[in-house]
């Protein structure tokens, strides 16, 4: 009886989490990651700006095609940690300062992990992209993300 009740609660929580996941919508934008060597890599990204969007992120997604991602805009530089709760796919994460300079990278994050990821210094944004993209493109700290959200920080 207790097991059946617990299973039903888990199912109901899953359904309500799925309903919440479907109710958050994101705007779209385009950005470039410019390497220190001068290479430009374009991405079509969804924008996470509101508290609901920032909380939802890429949770419950089953895939993230190459050349796409999600850009988290925190509005002002702050200390942030990202985790992979309810995230079903591995990701690479680029953490940027107020000018768009990449100050920290996380690669091949583990789906579902609650381990906090991020730098000890404040960031204005985080770019989440498909796992393996950082390695494939040779991205490094010091590279720059070019997007209008970073223009206000210069």
TrEMBL record:
InterPro entries, alphabetized: DUF192 (IPR003795), Saro_0823-like_sf (IPR038695)
Pfam family, one: DUF192
Keyword Mitochondrion: no
Signal peptide positions on this chain: 1-21
UniProt keyword terms in alphabetical order: Signal
The name this protein goes by in its record: Exported protein
Species the sequence originates in: Paramagnetospirillum magnetotacticum MS-1
């Amino acid at each position: 009886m207790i097991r059946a009740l617990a299973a039903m609660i888990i199912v109901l929580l899953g359904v309500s989490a799925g309903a919440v996941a479907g109710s958050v919508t994101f705007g779209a934008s385009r950005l470039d990651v410019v390497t220190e060597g001068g290479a430009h890599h374009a991405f079509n990204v969804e924008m996470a700006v509101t508290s609901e969007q920032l909380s939802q992120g890429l949770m419950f997604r089953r895939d993230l095609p190459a050349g796409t991602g999600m850009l988290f805009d925190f509005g002002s530089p702050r200390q942030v940690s990202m985790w992979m709760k309810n995230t079903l796919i591995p990701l690479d994460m680029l953490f940027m300062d107020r000018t768009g300079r990449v100050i920290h990278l996380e690669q091949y994050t583990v789906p579902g992990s609650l381990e906090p990821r991020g730098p000890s210094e404040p960031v204005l944004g985080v770019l989440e992209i498909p796992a393996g993209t950082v390695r494939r493109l040779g991205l490094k700290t010091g590279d720059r993300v070019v997007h209008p959200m970073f223009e206000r920080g210069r």
